[in-house]
Amino acid sequence: MVALSPFRPSSSVVIKIGSALLVDPETGQLRADWLSSLCSDINTLKDKEASVILVSSGAIALGKTRLNQWGKSLSLSEKQACAAAGQAQLTQAYEDALAPFGLMTAQILLTLNDTENRRRWINARATLDALLVMGVIPIINENDTVATDEIRYGDNDRLAARTAQMIGADTLILLSDIDGLYSSDPRADAKAAHIPVIETLDSDIMAMGGGANQQSAMGSGGMATKLAAAQIATQAGCHMCIMNGQANHPIQRLRDGEKVSWFKAAQNPKDARRQWISGHLNIKGSLQIDAGAEKALKNGSSLLAVGVSNVSGDFEKGDPVSIKAANGDILATGLVGYSAENTRKILGKNTREIADILGYDYGLPLVHRDNLVMQK
Predict the structure, then answer these.
(1) From residue 281, how far is each of 87, 169, 306, 317 by CA, in Å?
(2) pTM value?
(3) Domain 281-374 CATH assignment equals 2.30.130.10
């Protein structure tokens, strides 16, 4: 674990990078030296065995330059065209900057539906988990080429918070052009007070988002979106930081104690996730398990199909189900990895048989231990 926040060490870190940090606002060119310094910081985190995910803006800005549209006012379809042209450059820029450290990247493009729909959420989480186990750095951006106003975030602050929530991250770092939250806009009010630690996101704090940092010419997120991100992250048990990332080596500067604003989570990510699963879901069905599977669950393992003896209810992948002992007692609640129809086909079967039976294999246990809460 690596010491980033003043509250607890971090084993998993999400870093959000805004367009204005990655792309020079005057020239539209990639800030290659800055990116190289950031990747050096990421390598240090990896050396300390922290998992790192990047949520990066910049595709539209890079695409504008590539398509000779820099400085022009563009329609939605033109912006989406620039995103399509710039996303490849964005991913390649990270690949090139991380390559000297022996680190590989993977591109993931998400929309609002991917983090709000349980089935898509569980698929995205499984992919991210697999990449992190392989030591890969996921590069996440909103899928601007297909997202309309109805299905888009419109800013990567909240997307980063949803990503942190999805993987159960310890720390979310928003690299911005301001060094944290102020009581009022510091550019307009000389008496504006910097707030280094926010324990609770009450109405007074949320009201400070109105004028603290309006969106830039390239970025879409102001302080209001960062406070919305803080609500998502802290409720998910993730500490969040807002810092000025414009100078080189932003993560090293954070570790060295640079002035920032920290938003404190009330609980850790695992506790927050367990509370969400156990207390806020409409149960869609149940899985009855044998004594061997019951023992495995109590020892912290995932639920495999081989240990299931009976299925009831009509559920889809990602829906919440009860897990019952052989005598009918409810042992746990969890998010199931397969639909009821497919679960019935594979119950009692060994994991290696699933692909032969269904014609595919999600690469998931029936209920992953991270998606499961024991009741007794």
Answers:
(1) 36, 22, 26, 14
(2) 0.79
(3) yes
**Nearest partner of 93 among 14, 175, 21, 169, judged by Cα:** 21
Query: What's the whole-number mean pLDDT along residues 104-115?
Result: 85
Query: In the predicted model, what is the mean pLDDT of residues 346-366?
Result: 82
Q: Count Cβ atoms below 10 Å from residue 246 Cβ, excluding itself.
A: 16
Residue with tokens 């806009």: 185
Is the distance from CB of 141 to CB of 156 less than 8 angstroms? yes
* Cα 166 to Cα 121: distance, rounded to the nearest angstrom: 7
Domain boundaries along the sequence of the chain? 12-269, 281-374
Per-residue pLDDT, averaged over 242-256, amounts to 96
Name residue 253's amino acid.
R
Residue 197, C-beta contacts closer than 8 angstroms, at least 6 positions apart: 6, 261, 262, 264
Architecture of domain 12-269: 3-Layer(aba) Sandwich (3.40)
Mean pLDDT across 73-88: 88
State both tokens at 367. 């209920």
How many Å apart are CA 375 and CA 55, to the nearest integer?
35
Selection from 90, 103, 94 nearest residue 143 by Cα: 90
Per the structure block, which two tokens stand in for 187? 């550019």
Backbone phi and psi for residue 219, each to the nearest 5 degrees, phi listed first: -90, 165
- In terms of Cβ atoms closer than 10 Å to its own Cβ (0-12, 13-18, 19+), residue 67 is middle
* pLDDT computed for residue 122 by the predictor: 79
| Residue linked to tokens 């990421």 | 42
